[in-house]
Amino acid sequence: MQFNFNKITTRKDTNSVQYEGTEPIFGTQCLEPFWIADMDIETPEAIRDAMKKRLDNGIFGYTIWQNKEFYEPIKHWWQTRYNISLDDSDIHYSPTVLFTIGETMRQVSSEEDGIIITTPSYNIFPNLIESNHRKIVESPLIYDKRSKEYFLDVDHFTSLCRNENVTMYIHCNPHNPTGKVWSKDELETIKNICEANNVYLVSDEIHMDFVRPKEDFVSVIDLSEESDKILAATCLGKSFNLASIPHSYFITKDKKLAQVITETAKEVYQVSNVSSLALAAIEAAYTECNEWIDQLNDHIQGNFEYINDYINEHLSDCLSFDIPKATYLGWISFEKSGFDTDVVHKAFIDIGGIAVSPSKLFLNHENNHFRFNAASNRIRIEDGMRRIKDTFDYLYDTQNCKSGTYI
Ligand SMILES: Cc1ncc(COP(=O)(O)O)c(C=O)c1O
């Protein structure tokens, strides 16, 4: 069956953060948005049908997650898509991925401890670390111009892990915002360094279903053995555009930590029941939507190729872009334009009328990149690229005006 990812569906009157929540970051509403990581693409029909069926029952009381409708689809997905066998006892419900990461941090580290993140970093990790009174320890990724890939600075990472105040590392695989996919060798190196220095390894794998090709995704769970200090957190929120249907799960062989997180969710936060709609969605997604997500990845790859061609044709003087091997987030540099970074980000808003994520949010201290969400129909992507071109055309025009060459 061929799925149509170019259908235009309005998000008017849905209170979407993507469209209606731009004010706190961009200072204004009514921008064409390509910032937050959700999709302008409908959730697959199979999932919507399953949720409708559940709705038809009419009763939505407290729902237990420890049941076969939770474990079986998750095991099926990991086995058939990633060739990883899981036991029920490896899999645990959690309300959100960030709840899992935050709770792991609270359990395995103490206040004032250092928590490593690779930078640029998904913007919420630094907030999560600081709001839990821990210290952000940055391990800047190195960009290799030849291979056009980001790499871990292994020596620097090792020296950070050796610091006795450092107790946890938040790994992001695939990596938001760069789209890096970590190889098995890289993961083994990281695992060994963390193990040798007693640093807890938490892997955020929320974008795992957007690795192209899918065979290149290696979960830390694939390297994990009984009672290793390793945990992976994920959900279906990104893959099937279900961010407003609360749910997530984590996988670990560390039974002690799993028990503590589950008990804390139950006793301290009272958030231990699963959404009945999420349960229906998980079963349909993980048993019926393999082909859908493969085709969605083809569509996203097509959008990235369009963006790449457009930049080469119209914006090669000012933008550099490498098609990412994962996620639906493009990480685009305007370093070579030479324009002041604040001026560019302001012009995106004032001239392009477009909301793209400024890279300072991701601790890209030069702030000379922006993150562009490509999970949309092609018409919106074309419109977004025109807005970016209008922005830079304006900047070049005003610059020429200033230098007197513009008449
Ligand atoms: C890497 C990463 N982790 C976590 C999240 C949010 O996950 P959740 O809403 O389940 O906490 C996002 C959302 O953009 C993300 O990109």
Automatic annotation (TrEMBL):
<protein>
    <recommendedName>
        <fullName>cysteine-S-conjugate beta-lyase</fullName>
        <ecNumber>4.4.1.13</ecNumber>
    </recommendedName>
</protein>
<dbReference type="InterPro" id="IPR015424">
    <property type="entry name" value="PyrdxlP-dep_Trfase"/>
</dbReference>
<dbReference type="InterPro" id="IPR015422">
    <property type="entry name" value="PyrdxlP-dep_Trfase_small"/>
</dbReference>
<comment type="similarity">
    <text>Belongs to the class-II pyridoxal-phosphate-dependent aminotransferase family. MalY/PatB cystathionine beta-lyase subfamily.</text>
</comment>
<keyword id="KW-0663">Pyridoxal phosphate</keyword>
<keyword id="KW-0808">Transferase</keyword>
<dbReference type="GO" id="GO:0008483">
    <property type="term" value="F:transaminase activity"/>
</dbReference>
<dbReference type="InterPro" id="IPR015421">
    <property type="entry name" value="PyrdxlP-dep_Trfase_major"/>
</dbReference>
<dbReference type="Pfam" id="PF00155">
    <property type="entry name" value="Aminotran_1_2"/>
</dbReference>
<feature type="domain" description="Aminotransferase class I/classII large">
    <location>
        <begin position="40"/>
        <end position="376"/>
    </location>
</feature>
<dbReference type="InterPro" id="IPR004839">
    <property type="entry name" value="Aminotransferase_I/II_large"/>
</dbReference>
<keyword id="KW-0456">Lyase</keyword>
<keyword id="KW-0032">Aminotransferase</keyword>
<dbReference type="InterPro" id="IPR051798">
    <property type="entry name" value="Class-II_PLP-Dep_Aminotrans"/>
</dbReference>
